[in-house]
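The records we work with from here on pair a chain with its fold. Taken together, the tokens spell out the fold as the letters spell out the chain. To see the layout at work, look at the sequence and tokens printed below.
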Amino acid sequence: MTSTPQQLKKALVASGFEVFRTLPEEVVLAERVRENLILDSGVRVAPIEGGKLQVRLVLRAQKADFPNEDEPTLFARVRKLAEPAVAQGFAETSTSVTAVKDPADASRTLDTFYEVNLSHDVATVEDAVPILKFVLSLEKAVGHR
């Protein structure tokens, strides 16, 4: 049974995934960059109603990479990046614009992320495994020109 994020974390680790963080409502999977460095992969799994699970994917474009483009164009770039996930049954659930602040000076914005959130519901952790492997293999950020 995977009714809590803690139980879900144990099941995901048992299925071979690395966990970056466990939040009250979801488990954030890790992406191993080097042997001693893991990062947030942009992939999350959450228990939802009816004992099901929801695989969540966050994709983004960074304003600094495309300084002359407006918000609709940046979101269009992210939606283009999302096409392989949408083709596998993911649906867009929301968008967000997130300012990345300078940790030394909160009044200074270092960059702005334009994010598209997608999700795909599954019945069990076993059903989620191939979907998780697929989305972990995807690019999560729009590349430089």
The chain has a mean pLDDT of 93. The first strand starts at residue 19 and ends at 22.
